[in-house]
Amino acid sequence: MSALEVWDFEALEIKNFKSPDEVRNFSHGKVEVVNIMGGSVGRLTLEPGWRWSLDIKPLVNTEWCEAPHFQYQVSGHLHGVMADGTEFDTYAGEVVSIPPNHDGWVVGNEPVVFIDFTGAANYAKKT
User: Measured between alpha carbons, how far is 79 from 59 in angstroms, rounded to an integer?
Assistant: First the structure.
């Protein structure tokens, strides 16, 4: 069964990040979550100076970000590194798939904003 087959396309749902279902604030950023069609979509706003290993790692107590991300990047420049040492950069206008076990940080003075379709449900939840 495909993911599309488990969703209820018979029910109209409209959500807006102006009134998210949940907001999680953390040092240098926040994630706003809307729950829709049995899942969650998040808007991550990462301010200049944000780095996962400094701002989120103390909240979740894992060595690396364990959330997979499938996201659209609205603004900014993010640099990241995977646990295996692979480095990457993402920019506004890109659709990005990042597997678990990574670190990342904002590059420059512009906030990084993502719309995340897979990793938002548990992102930055305190353990």
Answer: 21
| Strands of the 77-82 sheet, one edge to the other | 87-91, 77-82, 102-107
What is this structure's pTM? 0.89
pLDDT digits (tens, 9 = 90+) for 25-52: 999 999 999 999 889 999 999 999 999 9
Please tell me the distance from the alpha carbon of residue 105 to that of residue 103, in angstroms, as a whole number.
Answer: 7
Q: What is the CA radius of gyration of the chain?
A: 15
Domain ranges of the chain: 20-116
Which CATH superfamily includes the segment(s) 20-116? Jelly Rolls (2.60.120.10)
User: What is the model's pLDDT at position 4?
Assistant: 56
- Angle at CA of residue 37, ends 90 and 15, nearest 5°: 70
